[in-house]
Write a structure and sequence with these properties.
The chain is α/β, with parallel strands linked by helices. The protein is 33% helix and 20% strand. The longest helix is centred in the middle third of the chain and has 18 residues.
C-alpha cells in the first residue's frame, strides 16, 4: 500500500482568543499520493491559503490556534515537531510556491543567493555544490541562461520570470511535496501556460506530490488529477477533475461550475450566479454552511452537519447530493 506523500487529518484553525475566536478552517482531512496533483478550489476567503500556511507551520504563534490529529509527510508526523525541527522539514521535504513572488522574494539579494541559501540550509552546506544545484534548478524550469538569472535581483525580472525563479527555489532540494498557492495569479495567458507546463514537467520528473490552490477551475482542470472544493473553511466535495466537471455532486460545486462562461455557446445568455451571500466566518450558521443558499436544502441541513469521509479520495458532504 502506497504511503501518502502528504496526509492531513482533522486540521482546524482559529483566529482570535477565548470566546471571540473564529474558526476559519474546520476539520480538513485529505491524502495526496506521490506524483499526484490535487487542486484545492473555492472562493476567496474560504480558507485555502490558511490551510496551506497551517500545514507548513507558517501561521503566527499569537492570535492563531492550530489543531490537528496529524500532518504526515511520507509517513512522518510533523505536526508535533518544535519550531527548530519544523524549519528543517520546511524547504527540504515540503516547499511552497507563494502567490506573490514580488513580496515573497528578498529584494536585497540576487536570485542565485536566495536559491543557494535554501540548498545550503536544507541539503548541503558546501557553497560550490549549492551553486551548482542552484544553476541546475534554474535551468530545469526553462531558463536558457541560468547564470544571468542567478545574478539578477527580483525587481530586474518580469512577473513570469520571478515566478519561475520561485519554482526553482521550491524545487532545488527536490521536496516530496509542493504547495502552489495561486502560482499563476496576475500573469498573462502565455506566461501562465508556461508556468503550468513547467510545474507539470518537474512534478513528473521528480514524482513530487502537489497541492495546487486556486480559484480558477480551468487551471485546476488542466493541472490536477484530483480536486477538493472548500466552502467556509470546510471541504465539501472530493473527487477527480473529470467527475467534477461532468457531474459535480455538491450543489455548491455545481453552482461554481455554472458561473463559468461557456465558449462557443450558440446563444450566449446571462452568466449564472449562486443566490445569496457567503456567510461571515464570525457568524456561521449551524449545520451545512451552504444550506441557506441551496435549492435542495431540507430542515436537517440546518440542524446537522453532513460528514465527508476523512481519507477517501471521493466523497461529498451533502444530505441530498446531485
Amino acid at each position: 500500500m502506497t504511503v501518502p506523500a502528504l496526509r492531513v487529518s482533522g486540521l482546524s484553525v482559529w483566529i482570535g482568543s477565548g470566546v471571540d475566536s473564529i474558526r476559519v478552517v474546520d476539520g480538513v482531512s485529505f491524502d495526496i499520493d506521490p506524483g499526484e496533483a490535487t487542486g484545492l478550489v473555492g472562493e476567496s476567503g474560504c480558507g485555502k491559503t490558511m490551510t496551506a500556511m497551517a500545514i507548513l507551520g507558517l501561521l503566527p504563534s499569537t492570535g492563531v490556534r492550530v489543531s490537528c490529529d496529524h500532518i504526515e509527510i511520507n509517513g512522518r508526523d510533523v505536526s508535533r515537531l518544535n519550531t527548530a525541527q519544523r524549519r528543517k522539514v520546511l524547504g527540504r521535504d515540503i516547499a511552497m510556491i507563494f502567490q506573490q513572488p514580488a513580496t515573497a522574494l528578498d529584494p536585497v539579494f540576487t536570485m542565485g543567493q536566495q536559491i543557494s541559501a535554501v540548498y545550503r540550509r536544507h541539503a548541503d552546506g558546501n557553497q560550490r555544490r549549492a551553486h551548482e544545484a542552484m544553476l541546475a534548478s534554474l535551468e530545469s524550469v526553462g531558463f536558457e541562461r541560468p547564470e544571468e538569472i542567478a545574478q539578477a535581483y527580483p525587481h530586474e525580472l518580469s512577473g513570469g520570470m520571478r515566478q519561475l525563479s520561485m519554482i526553482a527555489m521550491a524545487m532545488v532540494c527536490k521536496p516530496a511535496v509542493i504547495i502552489a498557492d495561486e502560482p499563476t495569479t496576475a500573469l498573462d495567458s502565455s506566461t501562465r501556460a508556461l508556468i503550468l507546463h513547467q510545474l507539470q514537467q518537474l512534478q513528473a520528473l521528480h514524482g513530487t506530490a502537489m497541492l495546487f490552490i486556486s480559484h480558477d477551475l480551468g487551471v485546476v482542470r488542466q493541472s490536477c488529477r484530483n480536486v477538493m472544493v472548500m466552502y467556509c473553511g470546510r471541504l465539501i466535495e472530493k473527487t477527480d477533475c473529470q467527475n467534477l466537471f461532468s457531474h459535480a455532486r455538491h450543489p455548491y460545486s455545481a453552482g461554481l461550475l455554472s458561473c463559468i462562461p461557456q465558449l462557443g455557446a450558440t446563444r450566449p445568455g446571462r452568466i449564472s450566479s449562486i443566490p445569496g451571500q457567503v456567510p461571515t466566518l464570525a457568524d456561521l450558521p449551524s449545520g451545512c454552511h451552504f444550506a441557506a443558499r441551496c435549492n435542495r436544502s431540507e430542515p436537517r441541513c440546518s440542524e446537522s452537519t453532513p460528514v465527508l469521509d476523512a481519507q477517501d479520495k471521493k466523497g461529498v458532504a451533502c444530505f441530498r447530493p446531485l
